[in-house]
Specification:
CATH class of the domain at 143-216: Mainly Beta
Order of helices and strands: HHHEEHHHEEHEEEHE
CATH topology of the domain at 143-216: SH3 type barrels
Number of strands: 8
Largest sheet: 6 strands, antiparallel
Helix content: 40-55%
Length: 222
């Protein structure tokens, strides 16, 4: 069974591969807050074990075996997040660190029992898809709110869970999964949006809009 440290590396390489074209050791170092020499040493170890392929100065990529391990860790993390919200009534900005600790100490039996108790869910509290027991992760068909044009509306389907403060601010604005957001105006000089959320007009910064992902509805008139 991989160590907690190895699991953290594999999971974060997977996440970075979803966001970046190329995962460098310096990028991984920044993500994990670990020195670059230590990251390089671990990456070489993972390459020897067959979980990553690594070309110096070009980047790191998970092998099929590495991806399989990453999806197992992510499945457990997202199941724990949902359990914390649904059963223990945590808020969505409180669960990431707790799930980070719990994901490493979960037997397959406990994983399956939690999955069953939650009704075999497809998404976690932030809208991220939960990999299946077989390690299948469906494609996501969402765009960021920042990509919507005035006259469009979308249903919030996923939010970034990277920053608890961003999640707290979304809650204050009334933005949760399933919220309908209508774009009224784009402010050109800074990319912020004037949007209708519920029955209220709100201004959403460009940075916040990049952390909200929506399913697009049909265009509306403004």
């Amino acid at each position: 069974m991989p160590s907690e440290q190895v699991e953290n590396y594999i999971k974060n390489i997977f996440k970075l591969q979803e966001q970046e074209k190329r995962v460098t050791t310096s990028l991984l170092s920044d993500r994990l807050q670990i020195s670059a020499p230590s990251v390089s040493e671990m990456v070489r170890k993972l390459a020897d074990e067959g979980t990553v392929s690594y070309t110096p100065y070009k980047g790191v990529e998970l092998t099929d075996e590495g991806r399989k391990q990453a999806l197992k860790i992510i499945r457990r993390h997202r199941l724990w997040e949902l359990f914390l919200v649904e059963v223990l009534k945590y808020q969505w900005d409180e669960i990431d660190e707790e799930a980070e600790r719990l994901e490493h100490f979960m037997s397959e039996r406990l994983e399956n029992r939690i999955d069953e108790a939650l009704g075999f869910p497809r998404r976690d509290p932030h809208g991220d898809l939960i990999p299946t027991r077989e390690g299948v992760l469906e494609d996501r068909n969402h765009i960021s709110l920042s990509e919507l044009e005035p006259g469009s509306e979308g249903i919030v389907a996923r939010v970034s869970d990277e920053n608890p403060e961003v999640l707290q601010y979304m809650s204050k604005l009334g933005i949760v999964l399933g919220t309908i957001v209508q774009i009224k105006e784009r402010i050109e000089f800074d990319g912020s949006l004037r949007a209708e959320i519920g029955s209220r007009d709100q201004f959403i910064s460009a940075k916040l809009a990049q952390n909200i992902f929506v399913e697009v509805k049909e265009s509306i008139s403004v």
